[in-house]
Amino acid sequence: MSHLSTHVxxxxxxxxxxxxxxxxxxxxxLLADGTTDADGxxxxxxxxxxxxxxxxLLFDVAAYFGDRPAxxxxxxxxxxxxxxxxxxxxxxxxxxxxxxYRGS
Length: 104
Known about the structure:
By secondary structure, this protein is mainly β. It is built from 1 helix and 9 strands; from the N terminus they run E-E-E-E-E-E-H-E-E-E.
């Protein structure tokens, strides 16, 4: 299992958000990328271990919304890794808002 995973749920439709490209960056450098699966998950994003420091997840949600009107074409989440435990960063998404938190 990688050090980092994510999960995207479409709160407007009440279902997982499949097909969203997700990229992991540190200091502007691309470390890993993936696409949410049918369950809205990218189970393994990046290496098995990430050093302590600041990271950015970029969710490219524009294509996911397609013809549905949406306010945010991308969601950018900055977060910090401080230790060796697994980090899970879920995204709750709707066409006009989003929320995120540190999951387990």
